[in-house]
Amino acid sequence: MCPRIHLTPRLAMVAAMVPEEAKLADIGTDHAYLPAALVEAGRISDAIAADLRSGPLDRARQTVLEQGLEGEIELRLCDGLSGIGPQEVDTVVIAGMGGETIAAILEAAPWTREQNTRLILQPMSSMDDLRRWLAANGYAIEREDLAREGETLYTAWSVRAGEMSPLTPGQIVAGMNTPHPLRGAWLDLWMGKVQRAREGLERSSREAAAGRKQELKELYEELVSMKKEWEQWQ
Ligand SMILES: C[S@@+](CC[C@H](N)C(=O)[O-])C[C@H]1O[C@@H](n2cnc3c(N)ncnc32)[C@H](O)[C@@H]1O
Q1: What is d(CA 194, CA 199) in angstroms, rounded to the nearest whole number?
Q2: Regarding predicted confidence, which is higher, 117 or 1?
Q3: What pTM does this model have?
Q4: How far is CA 79 from each of CA 46, 105, 166, rounded to the nearest angstrom?
Q5: CB 99 near ligand 1, within 6 Å
Q6: How many Å lie between the centroid of ligand 1 and the Cα of residue 50?
Q7: Any ligand 1 atom below 6 A from CB of 124
Q8: Ligand 1 mean position to 120 CA, how many Å?
C-alpha cells in the first residue's frame, strides 16, 4: 500500500473545514485526495467522490485502489450534485473550480439550501460573482480561511443556508476583514488587481468609463482602509 495522502496547504485548509464524521461528497474530486486523506486521518468513515469526467474519475479510482479505500470511498460520474441524493450527505465540498461553475452546481441542487447542507467552497476565480450569488440565493458564508502555496493565495468558505448581512464592495471582492496572518497579503493582491483595472480604464476616454472609474476608486480606498485595520490587529 502507498504512503498516506499528504494534502497541500490549499486542500489541507479545505479538509480542516470538514466536520468530524461528516457524510461527505467531494464534487469535482479529480484525484480524490481530499476524501482519501480525511478517511485515512479517521476524520470521516466514508465519502462519495464525484466528477463530471471519466479521466479525473479514473485518477480517483487509482488513488482509492492504491490507498486500499475501496470500501470507504464510492466513486460517481456525474455533473455536479446530479448523481447524489440529499439523504446521502450533510457536507459537500466543491473545490478548485471557478465561482461561476460552483454557483451553477448549487443552482441545480436547491436541496442543499432546503436541508441546510454544509457547503465548503474553494473558488479559484469569480469570487465576487459567487459571493453575490450566495447572498441572493439564501446562503450565508459563516467562515473564510486563507492558505498559501508558493506565491499563490487561496480562499475557502464554510457556507450554510441563511441570510448574509449586506456586503460592501470591498467585502464582495476580498471577504470580511479578519486578523488572519495572510489577510494583509490577500488585501495586497486585491489592491493590485483593482489598481491594474483602474490603470486600464485611465486609457479609456469614453464617458461610460467615468462611473466605473469612481467605483474602482472607492473600492480601492475601502481595501486600503481594510489593510490599515488589519495592520492594527497585528
Ligand atoms: C481543478 S480540478 C480540482 C480537483 C480538486 N477538487 C481540488 O480542489 O484539487 C477540477 C475538477 O472539477 C471537475 N468538474 C468541473 N466541472 C464539474 C461539474 N460540473 N461537476 C463535477 N465535476 C466537475 C473537473 O473534471 C476536474 O476534475
Answers
A1: 9
A2: 117
A3: 0.97
A4: 21, 8, 31
A5: no
A6: 9
A7: no
A8: 14
Does the beta carbon of 12 lie inside 6 Å of ligand 1?
no
Q: What is the pLDDT of residues 174-219, one digit of tens each?
A: 999 999 999 999 999 999 999 999 998 887 767 768 888 999 999 9
pLDDT in tens, 88-107: 999 999 999 999 999 999 99
Ligand 1 pocket check for 56: Cβ under 6 Å = yes
Q: Which atom of ligand 1 is nearest to the CA of 122?
A: 8
Report the nearest-CA residue for atom 9 of ligand 1. Answer: 96
Say yes or no: CB of residue 22 within 6 Å of ligand 1.
Answer: no
CA-nearest residue for atom 15, ligand 1, is 28
